[in-house]
Write a structure and sequence with these properties.
- This protein is of the alpha+beta class and about 475 residues long.
- The protein has two domains: about 230 residues, PmbA/TldD fold; about 250 residues, no CATH class.
- Helix 1 packs parallel to helix 2 and helix 3 runs parallel beside helix 5.
- The longest helix has 19 residues.
């Protein structure tokens, strides 16, 4: 790969680039799914290619190729130069990068079992077993399961001297039980909705999830929801279990702190942001219990936003986003950090693959757990009257990330500190800062889970990538409930 990078970097330098970097990505993925006992999908694919990003006359150019022969690589670098020169004709100002020390490094996701060492037949046999367990519950009319693996090996070289080799393993799995009755559909997902749980781990995650052991319970809950009472409408104290709180963080904290959205550089997919620059270190984002970080470091956990270096060679970092309720940080790149006077990039520039331009992406955007011991059951017992929301079903948020509405698959009414009746079609809504300021309790570290969101979309052309969100169950006071179905 060193020769390949030299061909590209030398071509870029000779043609006038003041900065250039090269990424080579070897990406293998396996996707398996079943639907009512039949194979819905079974694929095992591999993709290999390279890209060149250059700065010429103060503007970016980018080009990529699946052909990695010398002539093709040099032509790709030349094409990136031509694009940069064309872009420079319409630039508003020169692109400037904050400095970053170039390093030579290697890193691999910690894992115990290479997921690709397991056979497709073995994987499908487990999914079929889960599928059968779900459909053994009377009233379950559709069962869907999935299992996914990915190995992304990347080499990064820059004209500043960086040489970085990273290999990231991702494993994910989950399932859904649907119950159709009349004109109504109810569903329950495990261990989370929209694909289950995904982490930077090997096949050991599949064993940890206990997929078969939880299938019957989930199927029974899906059927029972048809007999449950409709979630009442009104103003209630609510508790969000950790996976729903993770999505709440994703939508109402993670996206609005992306600095390209704030600066108006990204708006095509999901809008801009209400977190304009004058709010930094001024806005009271939440209560004093709200502490959110953007942490890509390995020690934060095996999140989908965990890595050693981002896609412009900046080391993984922990950036305080909300500190004791105060808004304290953005997700940044070398370019955007320069635009707002930061001394260093936050290390969040990433691309979906070798043929995509890196853009600012969430890493692991996590809320820190409470310092005092507090379990979910203890939190429920301290709540006189409220509603517990579990497992996301739907979400909607405006293009500034300020007004939102979420629905979950199941809810539980809390009365006098105990779970009472099951509730169907629960929903809640609010305004971002009012909502986070209403948080008055969060469970402790032993209740904290680092959830994976594998399907975060951004950019044009769209890039779908994984992010991580750590959360413990938390309580919010006086929240509007039930508007989605009232």
């Amino acid at each position: 790969m060193k020769d390949l990078s030299s061909w590209a970097l030398n071509t870029a330098s000779q043609r006038g680039a003041t900065y250039a970097d090269v990424r080579v990505v070897n990406d293998r993925s396996r996707g398996l799914a079943t639907k009512n006992g039949k194979i819905g999908n079974a694929s095992d694919s591999q993709s290999l290619g390279m890209s060149v990003r250059v700065l010429v006359n103060g503007a970016w150019g980018f080009a990529s190729s699946a052909d990695m022969g010398r002539s093709a690589v040099e032509a790709t670098a030349a094409r990136a130069i031509d694009i940069a020169k064309a872009s420079a004709q319409v630039k508003q100002s020169d692109v400037k990068l904050v400095p970053e020390k170039a390093v030579k490094a290697e890193w691999t996701t910690p894992y115990k079992i290479d997921p690709f060492s397991t056979s497709i037949e073995q994987n499908l046999a487990l999914l079929q077993k889960v599928d059968a367990e779900l459909r053994s519950v009377k009233g379950v009319t559709l069962a869907e399961t999935n299992m996914n693996f990915r190995r992304e090996e990347q080499w990064f070289f820059s004209s500043e001297g960086a040489e970085i080799h990273q290999t990231k393993y991702v494993t994910g799995a989950g399932y859904v039980a649907y119950a159709f009755a009349g004109s109504e559909i109810q569903k329950r997902s495990y261990p989370n909705s929209f694909g289950g749980q995904w982490q930077n781990k090997g096949y050991e995650l599949i064993d940890e999830l206990k997929l078969v052991e939880n299938a019957r319970r989930l199927g029974e809950e899906a059927v029972a929801l048809h007999s449950a009472d409709q979630c009442p409408a009104g103003v209630f104290d609510i508790i969000l279990e950790s996976s729903q709180l993770g999505l709440q963080i994703h939508e109402s904290v993670g996206h609005p702190i992306e600095l390209d959205r704030v600066l108006g550089m990204e708006a095509n997919f999901a809008g801009t942001s209400f977190l304009t620059l004058e709010k930094l270190r001024i806005l009271k984002y939440g209560s004093e219990l709200v502490n959110v970080v953007a942490d890509a470091r390995e020690e934060h956990g095996p999140g989908l936003g965990t890595f050693a270096f981002d896609d412009e060679g900046v080391p993984a970092q922990c950036t305080p986003i909300i500190t004791n309720g105060l808004f304290t940080g953005y997700l940044s790149s070398r370019e955007t950090a320069s635009l707002i006077g930061l001394q260093r990039s936050g290390g969040t520039l990433r691309a979906e693959g070798w043929n995509r331009l890196p853009i600012i992406r969430m890493t692991n955007i996590s809320i820190l757990p409470g310092e005092k011991p507090l379990t979910l059951e203890q939190l429920i017992s301290s709540t006189d009257h409220g509603i517990l929301f579990q497992t996301n079903r739907s979400w909607s948020i405006d293009d500034k990330r300020y007004n939102f509405q979420f629905g979950t698959e199941i809810g539980w009414e809390i009365k006098k500190g105990k779970r009472a009746r099951m509730l169907k079609n629960p929903s809640y809504s609010g305004i971002t800062t009012e909502f986070w300021n209403s948080m008055d309790a969060i469970c402790s570290r032993d209740q904290w889970t680092l959830w994976g969101t594998p399907n975060c979309g951004k950019g044009q052309p769209q890039q779908v990538m994984g992010t991580g969100h750590g959360a413990s169950p938390a309580r919010f006071r006086k929240v509007k409930v039930g508007a989605a179905y009232s």
